[in-house]
Specification:
The protein has 15 helices and 20 strands. It is of the alpha/beta class. A hairpin with a 2-residue loop joins strand 19 and strand 20. The structure holds N-(aminocarbonyl)-beta-alanine (URP) and zinc ion (3 copies).
Amino acid sequence: MPTKVIKNGTIVTADRTWKADVKIDGGKIVQIGQNLSADEVLDATGCYVMPGGIDPHVHLEMPFMGTHSADNFESGTRAGLSGGTTMVVDFILPAPEQSLLEALAIWQQKSSLACSDYSYHMAITWWGEQVFNEMAEVVDRGINTFKHFMAYKGALMVDDDEMFSSFQRCSALGALPLVHAENGDVVASLQQRLLAEGNNGPEAHAYSRPPEVEGEAANRAIMIADMANVPLYIVHTSCEQAHEAIRRARQKGMRVYGEPLIQHLVLDESEYQNADWDHAAQRVMSPPFRNKLHQDSLWAGLQAGSLQVVATDHCSFTIDQKRFGVGDFTKIPNGTGGLEDRMPVLWTRGVNTGRLTMNEFVAVTSTNIAKILNMYPRKGAIVEGADADIVVWDPEREKTISAKAQQSVIEYNVFEGIKVKGLPRFTLTRGKVAIEESTVKAEPGHGEFVAREPFQAVNRALSRWKELTAPRRVERSGIPATGV
Ligand code: URP
Ligand code: ZN
Ligand code: ZN
Ligand code: ZN
């Protein structure tokens, strides 16, 4: 590959903003400085040169609710690149009783046409000696994060004893547990009551998953993680109740991370009241969209640092797939898209409004994610030696989001009609230009798996602390004779 230099731009990282050129060779950043030259020049005049976005939470071609999510690794990563996201982390979902390694092989097959780099989380969907043993092999293969669904009763859900066993195993292996925090028993019960009362439309999806359902599960997972002596990552934190649990845990010194989604930051519960069934059903996801008070809490969390990352949970379904749930909201496949829109929408609603600084934007879309998932500074950084996953961001470029122009294969977009200002001029994946303004040059199969090492520092610190504070017998010299 010829060498490249990104010239005349302003580099923006999670902690600095400065003017410099960035030289790329062999897919890596090789030099940062003034007046650099190379075989090819990418002009970044008027632009910010930032680490490419990392989406820590996507479901591409996910087997779920009797179907598969519509975007696969090819269309999903192409959508990501179009919006400045240069890496995604997908969830491997073993079927009940299925070997984790067998499921891994299926996901490797699915991701062969990825246009950008990717990594995996492994879901713990059942428990047994085989799972316990295979978790070690999974960590050896570069997957150090294990996901637990506290909802989807009868399908993906695990219960507390399984979660506690798995969290302890994570602790021993230097792995990080993730949870989907919703009380699946309460949801199942509310669903049945709503249906029995004739509430079968998509709005009932939201009624069946109030914030308390999420807050309770977040608190429970945090306490279980604390007892298992392991950090915890809570996916799609959508409400104040869950955020409050995370804040409280962090104040007590626990390593707990919270991940709001771009959907929850900007879309609200009124979407489910729309008179058009399709419109409302297309917004059905778990947790559901919330009201403004919850949205303000999530923004405040990003500002204050009690919430660390912004994801999409990209899990798109076509109109026909959503219609599986006509007459019974519990059969509407749960999930929405967002891969192409996360960065422009967060920039527009966050940076352009003054809610986030540019550096905070980089932190929550890239750097914090790379650190929390243990792939920093190979990803999430503009430093010599890092992968050249870079977005050259033009703060003046504008568009109105429209399904007609999107990369995702579905027919609609939950952000339809939103005007964004701030879009990629170039997106580079390991040094290759995949996006040049609206021209898509992404190459299926270019993406590679990113292996992530087990966590050393936090797990070692936690086990050292546990050892020091373990219950110990007090040795006494003179023990009095038993009283009479
Ligand atoms: O509704 C959602 N979020 N669908 C994807 C699966 C999950 O729970 O993350
Ligand atoms: Zn059990
Ligand atoms: Zn989930
Ligand atoms: Zn998800």
